[in-house]
Amino acid sequence: MNARNVLYRKVAYLVGIVLLLFPLFWLGRPEVRDESGRLQSGGTLAQMRHEMGLSPAELGEIDPASQTMKLATLGLRGIASWILWQRADEYHEKENWDKLAATLNTLRRLQPHYISVWDYQAWNVSYNVAKEFDHYEHRYLWLKRGIEFLMTGTRYNRHNPRLLWSLGWFTGYKIGTADEKKEYRELFRDDVDFHVQLNEYVNVDEARGVGGKPDNWLMGRLWYLRAVDVDTAGIPVQWMRQSEESETITKRKRSATLFYHDPPKQILNYAQAITEELLPGDTTREAWGWGHREFSAFGNREIALYDGLIIRLNDLQRLVDEINELVRQLDELAPGLREK
Q1: pTM for the full model?
Q2: What gap in Å lies between CA 39 and CA 17, rounded to an integer?
Q3: 3-class secondary structure, 149
Q4: Could you state, in chain order, the average pLDDT of each consecutive group of 10 residues for the chain (340 residues)?
Q5: Rounded Cα distance, 150 and 119, in Å
Q6: Which of 11, 19, 126, 311 stands 20 to 30 A from 330 (CA)?
Q7: What ranges do the domains of the chain cover?
């Protein structure tokens, strides 16, 4: 009797497992797309990923090697990633740069859509690793590696403006405000091979400055403009400050005003840089004039604040004049009332 009960129990378990396969299949069916890339069919989860824009094809390019590595980890991708992060820190401490680069490459394949992988490790390479070298040319090479790392990240996360913003910061401020900014800027201007790489992502011709050579500040502006384009297309800038108190996903919080202020600010930085490098003349005058026009356009831009209020910075003086006029009218209606 006991043996028969055990048999019945095993059969019941087996039948239950088979029955569960049907809803699991229904939920997890892979998506099927037509030649134009539109979703034709798929399980409930595939349809939800499509509606929310979370499928790998919609987040960015699909890397076959990355997908293979995910399958090879057998569901332990999180543990594997944690181990790789630990190894990356270890290789950094031991100054084993070749193994560090290889580890970062493996890490980004395991987590191609995890923004912090690209952002944090690019900062680590361009700032922490680069400073370990004595010669500025070696530091510049590692600075470039960080930029290249971020550029690769944008291919897999094309709808996320955070990496684009970081590229603007690296290209502009890391090169243009470093202690070796004179040498860095000169290296950047003459780095033709790097310009070819950059041209795959932005139009390098739009960043040409003095002497017809690309300028790091103007290149940073192009990256910031791409970040603004993503936001304009309706993708929320998730790391912006959503309220006065909120802590967002990065310590480098940006208000909406500062976010849209970044592109024109790079033109002023460019004008300041060439003014320090050249004698004042038509070239510097044109640069400052360009910056003035861009900031005027920025002032006319409608900016949504965290509380939903829409502002235009150039409206400030008009609003001040309106307030003064209302105060004057109030004083005429009730003279001396405000002094009481």
Answers
A1: 0.71
A2: 30
A3: helix
A4: 73 83 66 54 58 46 49 64 82 80 78 79 84 90 92 84 90 93 94 94 93 94 90 57 41 70 94 89 92 92 76 86 86 76
A5: 7
A6: 311
A7: 1-58, 161-176+184-308, 309-340
